[in-house]
Amino acid sequence: MSHLFLSPEWIEAARGIRERHEANIPSIPVSIRINVVAIGVPFGDGTVRAHIDTSAGGLSMDLGAIDSPDVTVTTDYDTARQLFVEQDPATTMQAFMSGRIKVEGDITRIMALQMSVPQDDRADIVAAEIRDITA
Questions:
Q1: What is the model's pLDDT at position 125?
Q2: For 91-119, what is each residue's pLDDT tens digit?
Q3: Which CATH number fits the domain that encloses residue 120?
Q4: What is the share, in percent, of the chain residues with pLDDT greater than 90?
Q5: Pair 28, 116: CB distance under 8 Å
Q6: Domain span at residue 65?
Q7: Which of 7, 19, 25, 133 is the most exposed place for a label (fewest CB within 10 A)?
Q8: Cα 68 from chain centroid (whole Å)
Q9: Continuous H helices in 72-120
Q10: Which residues fall within 8 angstroms of residue 5, CB to CB, at 6 or more apart?
Q11: What element of type H or E holds 60?
């Protein structure tokens, strides 16, 4: 079953996928806390606040903002979906360069995270499953 990206149902399903594969995914060596603000969302009041936290060694994503983030990323819904679900570096760079992604805080921390996230068959399986649940 697919769910709208960043909806409570999507967050729950994505968390379930990560938990199911947790033992097979290497830890993330970069500790970062990121608030994400997605605007133009096709549900609720049109804005979703979420966060990503790797401080425990894995990637945790949930709804709501966290206090004292290292970085806050603000973007439109479609760009957020491209960034977090499709994970297309060229599209992400183009969105950043055209101003569709705004970053407050230490952008080098995000760059370090991108470089440290494992890119192997196990990560590809998780990414494919997350794409499959995303409407």
A1: 93
A2: 888 999 999 999 999 999 988 888 887 77
A3: 3.30.1050.10
A4: 73
A5: yes
A6: 8-132
A7: 19
A8: 18
A9: 77-81, 89-97, 107-116
A10: 77, 80, 81, 84, 85, 134, 135
A11: strand 60-63
